[in-house]
Structures are given as C-alpha cells and as structure tokens.
Specification:
The chain has 280 residues and is of the alpha/beta class. The chain is built from ten helices and nine strands.
Length: 280
C-alpha cells in the first residue's frame, strides 16, 4: 500500500461518517501517525506506507468516527501560535477565545506597568499561559478546580516554560484569595452554557468536561460569582475580561450594572458578542 492509498482509505472512512471538514481532519491524523505533512504526502505519494503507522492511523480514524474530538486524538492543539496539550477532562482551546487574549494583551501594553493577572477557570491554561509568554514581566495566577484539567494546566506550564505563571488548585466560588496580591486584570472563559442547552450541543462538544460547559440554569452562575466575589478585588484602573456566549452580553452587563467602571462588549468579525470588558 502506498502513502496515497493509505490516505484515501482514511478519508473515505471519515466521509462515510459525514465528518465535517474530513480532508483537514484526515491530513491532521495522517501527519500525526505517519509524520507526513501535506507537502510531503503529495510529493511522496508513491512511498510504501508503514504497516504499523497505518494501523495506528486506522485506530485514530475509528476514534474520530466514534465521536472523539480530533484535538483529543492528536493530544495537543494550537492556540495563539502556541501548542497546548489537551485530552479528556479539559476544554479544547478555541480560536474565538483569542479575542480575549488580544484585548488582555492590549490592556497590559497600555497600562505601562508590571501587571498582576488572574486567569479564573483556567482549564488548559490557553489564556493565562499565552499572556505569560507574551508578557514575561507580569505575574500570572491560574486558578482551576478540577484534577483532570489541573494535570493539563501543569503540563502546559512546564512545556511552555512560563516561570512567571503560578497554578493554583482553587474553586472560584470560594471568592478572592486574600493571601495573594490583588489583580490588575482578571480574565476568564467560564462555563456559560445554560442547563437546558447542554443536550443539544454537538456530540464532539459533549465529550468535553460537563463542568467546563455547564453555567447553571441560565448559563450565568459564574458571572454572578465573578461580580460578587472577584470584581471588588481588582486594583484601581484595572479590568475584567470575560468570554461569553452569543447574545449573553446584555445579561452580563446587567449583572455588573452597579459597577462604576465602563462596561463594553467585544464582537468578532461576524458581529457576534464574544466577551464583556468591565473597567474598574
């Protein structure tokens, strides 16, 4: 069997199961198993396919057609130009979250000082560890409650060599930790899916941890916690940046309406509300 034949066999299996963007996913899995990127695969199409690699490839294809997320199979995923280890028990970093990082990066640059940054509900650390890489002068504290996610968070911290980042096992519903320095910036991508909407999510999304998705009855439990137990801890002229679901921004603004600082909504290129910014 040639490289081209092996690739086509995997692609057919993905297409037969109606996997979206089957060509992209097949290419990712093929490179993962064979070590052939797209250019090498095309230019060496008549190479003999390694039997062990082909068996591994078919196993990965089977996992994917059974509904396991591509990112979990690959074991890592890129976010903001950095590779993050991911797997069962941790939320997969998504490109829309990069908007939050961009805004946080801009805030830190404009502040003109060494910022204390909190990443609450840190998960894999995509937000906080990226900011730690971008701003070595800042101290980044990443808070995560669940053991499975903490394992990936610690692994990614070590992998990215972010010595200015500290991982803290903590339930944010316990409120601000008085033993730590007060933050200038709080960033968070909290669970924000309403309970009744969980079952309607894509099957791949349902393979991600329920605890990283479920935002309570109306999807806003974590935002209320952030307002009641964390907003007051932010230093003067500080900022809170919170990712949100589509059409949630007005409700979140209402939760924070008694705050003195300006509240604004960040939209993506499709004019979908992606985050809320609350100034102190």
């Amino acid at each position: 069997m040639t490289i081209a034949e092996a690739y086509k066999a995997g692609l057919k299996l993905l297409n037969d199961c109606n996997i979206d963007d089957a060509m992209f996913e097949c290419s990712c899995l093929f490179e993962h198993c064979f070590g052939y990127d797209k250019i090498k695969r095309v230019t060496h199409f008549d190479d003999t396919a390694d039997g062990q690699a082909f068996s591994s490839f078919l196993s990965c294809i089977k996992r994917r057609t059974d509904g396991e997320p591509l990112q979990y199979i690959l074991g890592k995923w890129q976010f903001y130009g950095f590779d993050f280890f991911v797997g069962e028990g941790v939320l997969i970093p998504r490109p829309e979250t990069e908007l939050l990082v961009q805004e946080a990066d801009e805030y830190i640059k404009n502040s003109g000082k060494k910022c204390i940054v909190y990443d609450l509900c840190a998960g894999s650390g995509a937000i906080g560890l990226t900011l730690a890489k971008l701003h070595s002068e800042c101290d980044i504290f990443l808070f995560e409650k669940y053991d499975e996610a903490l394992c990936y968070l610690k692994k990614n911290k070590e992998h990215l060599n972010t010595q200015n980042a500290e991982v803290i096992a903590y339930d944010i519903f316990n409120g601000f930790c008085e033993s730590l320095p007060k933050p200038d910036l709080i960033v968070s991508n909290p669970p924000y899916i309403a309970e009744k909407e969980i079952k309607s999510l894509q099957s791949e999304v349902l393979r991600e941890p329920h605890t990283a998705l479920d935002g309570g009855k109306d999807g806003l439990d974590f935002y209320r916690c952030l307002y009641e137990k964390w907003y007051g801890a932010i230093n003067k002229d500080g900022c809170m940046l919170l990712e949100c679901g589509d059409a949630q921004s007005e409700e979140i603004k209402s939760i924070f309406s008694s705050c003195n600082g300006q509240i604004s909504v960040l939209y993506d290129f499709n004019n979908i509300d992606r985050a809320v910014k609350i100034n102190v």
